């Protein structure tokens, strides 16, 4: 009997050893990809998907440098051009060979995509040198060419050419209806989409012709389930129904930190949360003393500690650490006495009443943070009438500038400081599109000029100095109220090596995930 | 019967037209669906162009008339988010909700009838007092909280049951995606159905008890007892049958409500049914799906009410006589 038992045990061991390479990852996120077409929408979820099923030319590393993916190396050949040497022998999921033609085709399609065309506007026609060499060219010298190359996920041009059964072109980018690209994929990525029911479940299986055999990643199947409800997502991890969750609800952080059978990883993020003070609607906000008083009265370190439970980093500027414009001198400001004094010196020592709007389901604790701000303003004689609403209604109200103070969070799609200014602080201009989300109507010709100059400054040190100067100007003038950068969070079972695959962009590189 | 059916169908049509109109009014207030379809940095012109393509810039009446025109051909619009016809989305989500409601209804019936009768017959028994006390608690705890508690106790702490989703499903008859036919699916339905029935169960216990008590006081019951019929027969045949009338009425309405408003339970359990779909559609302002769903719910209510009326006729012949006049 005993002998039999040992034999069975041994057999079982051999069996499990055989399966050691085959690992399934059950993944729960708050949402799932809206489409299989990587260019249909620019959103965190779609980029996470792109990194599974496609490969970019180059990608960000954890310390914000670039590493080769489909491009093995690259070099700047002149002010306008970077030459990319492509990896040879890479196959698409369809079996087609990956060449420079696919890169050019993908770039042309990006310029047609509503969501990406803005980012790729600086790009001119690329030049194909040979099958494995391509020159990517910009219209003017462009310092962010490599940043943008992380968004070029080559698509299988042969696969996406021609027409589908209904006679529609296969390369059509369709947001609200069926299309070939919305339902089919052929990328070079580690995973193929094996089955998908939108909003319910997506199954990714390892592509057996994948080029990156050096990666330590050993996950050959990913089952992605969206779990929208925060408490349920946490419960699913704690009960062992899923192996990995993102994002981790802030209210569950302590619980997960204490749990022995869960590993929690957090990281300072790069999404800045701010309040804008509308100078067009209110004379009071034109007075720099008043704006300064508001900034000094806003206890953002306190908000981070009490409301965000330490799950954020208090900010004094827009650029997070690691960005070119990050200026180490610009620390968060809070001093109530100083704020009161500034108010007394201003033209409005008796205070005034303003209106304010904020979303209640867009940023972490957005409503609570806004309420805290209201009570902080009361201390310096500013009465704030706050209204919060769901994000579905918020943005139209924001654009219409219905209130004197409006909340907005921003993450730079380019992972670069200039992007914050272009959207949030440059003089609003319908023609150029600058200042699209500048509801403070802050407008400073010097800042605009610095940012415009930075757009074609390819010398990194010079450019950093320019952007840091711009951050300093808007800091000194209290152009807006900075609050904090939201942290990012991931949690998984202890046998998952999470740290190496996560980054500040929040695209975990699941292809490199090791499950012990 | 024929006149009755015709009247009902006309009623249903009126209800649907009214609902579609109200749904459309909400649609204009709920937000801009295009916001959810584009990245935040997309320019206002681009967004306006997409709105134009979707016909969202047309005046209210133009949009509504166009919707009605398409609806007559059976096309109630296309979900922006799911990128397919709204009706297809609703139909694919319906089995999940209906199965959940079915299992919850079974739980409610199986428990409420005996408990209700027991509490009516033995009102002073200690067990009755406990059950009535519990039912008050049950009514007052929100479903949301019940659901979270169930998950934490049975999925996280005890790890007996799965915490979310429908588990393994199989296709029945080619379109009905069922979770009731697999062991995994059955395990997954236990917690959500308990959560969903937690509100209805106490309500029905109290309803049955109250009605039964009233019926037991009536003359004909006393007479039946005096005649020497067995207590059982008196209780189950004579008394219970008359207790059922108001219970069926309330039950019908509640069933409709359950089908339409499984929202909370479905959201907590990530249960891929119509309630969850509805909530997400509101958040994404997927307006065409929203209107289609509201119309669909209107139809459900009309159908349920019709069935209730018919059953009523079966139970109480007097209603039929009145209806024939």
TrEMBL record, chain A:
Does the keyword field hold Transport?
yes
Concerning InterPro entries, the annotation shows:
Peptide/Ni-bd, SBP_5, SBP_5_CS, SBP_5_dom
Alphabetically, the GO molecular function entries are: peptide transmembrane transporter activity
Q: Which residues form the signal peptide?
A: 1-22
State the Gene Ontology BP annotations. Answer: peptide transport
Q: Which residues cross the membrane?
A: none
Protein family per UniProt = Belongs to the bacterial solute-binding protein 5 family.
Q: What is this protein called?
A: ABC transporter substrate-binding protein
The species this protein was found in: Oceanidesulfovibrio marinus
Q: Lineage from the top down?
A: Bacteria, Pseudomonadati, Thermodesulfobacteriota, Desulfovibrionia, Desulfovibrionales
From TrEMBL, chain B:
Q: Which UniProt keywords apply?
A: Cell membrane, Membrane, Transmembrane, Transmembrane helix, Transport
Q: Does the keyword Transmembrane helix apply?
A: yes
The membrane topology term of the UniProt record is: Multi-pass membrane protein
Q: Where in the cell is it found?
A: Cell membrane
Q: What is its main location?
A: membrane
Q: Which InterPro entries match?
A: BPD_transp_1_N (IPR045621), MetI-like (IPR000515), MetI-like_sf (IPR035906)
Q: Output the CDD domains linked to this UniProt entry.
A: TM_PBP2
Q: Which residues form the ABC transmembrane type-1 domain?
A: 94-312
The portions of this protein that span the membrane are 12-30, 100-121, 133-155, 185-205, 243-269, 289-315
Per the record, GO CC terms? plasma membrane
Domain of life per record: Bacteria
The Gene Ontology biological process annotation of the record reads: transmembrane transport
PANTHER family hit by this protein? ABC TRANSPORTER PERMEASE PROTEIN, DIPEPTIDE TRANSPORT SYSTEM PERMEASE PROTEIN DPPB-RELATED
As for family, the record states: Belongs to the binding-protein-dependent transport system permease family.
User: In its UniProt entry, what is this protein called?
Assistant: ABC transporter permease
What organism is recorded for this protein?
A: Oceanidesulfovibrio marinus
